[in-house]
Amino acid sequence: MHQMGSLPKPKHPLISVIYNKDLKTVSGINGVRIINHLYTVIFKSSDACSSFSYGKSSYDYEEGTLVFTSPGQVMEFENNGAENEQIDPDGWSLVFHPDIFRNSTLSDKKNKYSFFQYDSNEALHVSEKEKSSLEDLLKKIVQEYSQMLDRHSQNLIISNIELFLDYCLRFYDRQFFSRANLNSDIISKFERFLINYYEANKASHHGIPNVEHCAKQLNLSPNYLSDILKRETGKTALEHIHFFIIERAKDSLLNSSDPISRIAYSLGFEYPQHFSNLFRSKTGFSPKEFRHLN
Predict the structure, then answer these.
(1) Are residues 187 and 173 in the same domain?
(2) 157 in the same domain as 28
């Protein structure tokens, strides 16, 4: 990344903070697509952000946008058509190698930072105060890796990365809260999708809809959909799907005489035993026992 921006070599092998104002000419990388093998947090100032591209709504702050990418994702550098144009001179990027997570306090917490799996149109929109808090932490990270490394350096760098990501988690929670009405609409659409899917008998032909398929139908990433549902209802997307299936199974068991195997197939299970196992885990009864409760 330093080479692409014609920057000096990084001062630390696993982490760097890149300020766009320090980049040399970027016309050579405009429109370039790369597979990024690093965790990346990109800040774009309000002047450089497109409301459409980054999913900004009327509920959001306007002082800037954070986009998160994880290793293996494709990044494309924007091409605005101007020769020798700099990319958002007020922007910056925090980049770090996956090894930062290994053998550190972050290793057990990596999964809670699910925003690294969000799409760009699910970006975080921050206030001026929130941006300042994050940039203060960036300065501390740069200060640590810019001086002579000692036995405290790695722990302090990792601690500041963790604090940075925890603040991002807090700011996302704030954004979810401020978008409560919008999120309710997403939940309604999700529930309607499940109803339509089963009423159209698609489960018999295509199986149980997974989280990825449901999210795609709502133009969301799987992690974003699951996080919205978890914050609003206490259940993840997968838990919602299972709950819907179990409730539908209960209706079929009590209101029909269909064999349990036929009910299982109609719900999208390839093997009836898998249906029985899920039903027992959620209700404490086998489908046969439940059918004879009343």
Answers:
(1) no
(2) yes
Tokens of 255: 């209101």
Choose the final residue of a domain: 178, 194, 227: 178
Q: H or E element: which one contains 127?
A: none
State pLDDT tens for residues 32-79.
Answer: 778 889 999 999 987 766 554 677 777 787 889 999 999 988 877 665
**Same structural domain, 165 and 225:** no
| C-alpha to C-alpha distance for 117 and 133, rounded to whole angstroms | 23
Containing 244, the helix (H) or strand (E) segment is helix 237-255
Q: Identify whether 1 is part of a domain.
A: no
Dist CA 101 CA 121 (whole Å): 26
DSSP tag of 9: P
- The CATH number assigned to the domain holding 268 equals 1.10.10.60
Q: What is the DSSP string of 12-64?
A: SSSEEEEEGGG----TTTTT-EEEE-SEEEEEEEGGG--TTTTT--TTS--SE
193 and 244 in contact (C-beta within 8 Å)? no
Encode pLDDT of 224-272 as tens digits.
999 999 999 999 999 999 999 999 999 999 999 999 999 999 999 999 9
| Domain boundaries, position 137 | 15-178
* Residue 45 domain-assigned (yes or no): yes
Contact between 89 and 20 (Cβ < 8 Å): yes
Residues 201 and 123 in one domain: no
Q: How many structural domains compose the chain?
A: 2
Cross-strand bridge partners of residue 36: 73
pTM value? 0.83
Cα atoms in the Cβ-side hemisphere of radius 13 Å centred on 48: 21
What end-to-end distance do the CA atoms of the chain give, in Å?
66
